[in-house]
Amino acid sequence: DTGVSQDPRHKITKRGQNVTFRCDPISEHNRLYWYRQTLGQGPEFLTYFQNEAQLEKSRLLSDRFSAERPKGSFSTLEIQRTEQGDSAMYLCASSPEGLQFFGPGTRLTVL
Amino acid sequence: KNEVEQSPQNLTAQEGEFITINCSYSVGISALHWLQQHPGGGIVSLFMLSSGKKKHGRLIATINIQEKHSSLHITASHPRDSAVYICAAATSGTYKYIFGTGTRLKVLA
Question: Are A48 and A35 in contact (CB under 8 A)?
């Protein structure tokens, strides 16, 4: 399968715990995006990488959120001290330029 | 006011009906995308438009750049078309998407 993959697909955690999600983009896609989608809403932009450089971060990305793409390939999104409001689907997409290809998402539930 | 607005939010149609979903945007774009999202979250790109009209099977997408408006049409709708349809404005430069809230379509047999 050469599509965008995300791991895990589902994560249930208790409030206050840290969680980390991984995204593996399509090979040679230099652009990688993270989005968050809450129930009944369209996705919202979180952050964007071009190769290993994080070029844009949304104001939605509080200090508890950090994203990395250390070698310009896979990316991780970490949420520290999770809150119930962090419960959402976290979507990753990659792109050579223009059209984005989405992963299946990681559904986070914070109890 | 959202930068990307869609209407209607919910739509129920009978099988065979012609369906139109509208999208208006207020930001500068490099392209306008139509996406389909099924239950469980998977998002599939349907169209990327920067001008004019595109057709794929029973789906047709149009865009009017001057009016900042796009439409997605489904001809001869079928229950398998039931999904959430989302328009997304790809911004100039980063090409990040600004999404509409989606249109939940249900096609009844």
Answer: no
